[in-house]
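Running this now, will post back.
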Amino acid sequence: MSIVDLVNGQVATMLPERYKKYTNEEMVEKIWAIKQSLGTKLFIPGHHYQKNEVIQFADETGDSLQLAQLCAANELAEHIVFCGVHFMAETADILTKPHQKVYLPDMRAGCSMADMADIYQTERAWNHLQERFGDTILPLTYVNSTAAIKAFVGRNGGATVTSSNAKVIVKWALTQKKRILFLPDQHLGRNTSYDLGIPLTHMAVWNPLTDVLEFEGRDDDCEVILWKGHCSVHENFTVENIRYIRDNEPDRQVIVHPECTHEVVMQSDDNGSTKYIIEQITAAPPGTKWAIGTEMNLVNRLMDVHPEQDIISLNPLMCPCLTMNRIDLPHLLWCLENITEGIEHNIISVDDCTSLEATKALDRMLQRP
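Update: finished.
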């Protein structure tokens, strides 16, 4: 949520004081009671990176797009309380029916990566790039982006991608146009393109702060234009972290998320989406030693769920995603009590025009095998 929105008073009022006085036990009891009273009218999706205190109430857990699709499939739910961040709730609102309302327990739960590409920067960049390269670019956006960016991609013939299907979508996109613009995570775009055989020297970086294309090669060689954005969590895993593991525990496998830097991904033993990481840990023989490079709440949960494995975080100084952690028991209870009292509060609503164009980008992705 931007400073402009704060100034305009569009962010819901701060958490009432009474919620800060409840004990955890009192809040847990109240939340369970509300869940029981609302029954199938309420659906609570919880992202993998949420805290355990919140995940215990989730009807489903998963990644952002998976949860949005589950919301769309659950037509009985009138109230969808999305325990994640803003762009995830937007996607859920885009995919759900008009009679369903999507809520975000704390409107401050944003995503620093999604905020690194706003629609004004993107349209300005697109104009520059069209002048330079002509009609040779297909835009793609990671689902970790705002509804406005998804809509921009949709109306310009592009598609969304996830960390699970990025290779499929990038490969498809390069059959449609000579080059792609990949928003907003440069690392996922770079790692995916490299895996598909595109050399680093054929990748440029668009800097939205300077409106400059950072590229030293010939324009004709440019195949991938990466938006200069990143995940503040995954960029904190370093080659030094991997070097420490190699020097001290050479039998420990390193698995990381492709939102990590190219150097970290190249030096790890394996990399993949959150779903892929969970599957690899689950399928591994007991006693396998892992250093995992992804969000700390998930790493801690994997430690708890798989005590038969020896699991550590690749970076021992990592903190959980700060914006994800804004969703907590007091805000969840506050949101649910407002629903029971008929108060429309912290509702995420994407306008019809934006939803229509964003759906085009999502549909093009979902149509790919």
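Residues 1-12 have pLDDT under 50 and may be disordered. More later if anyone needs it.
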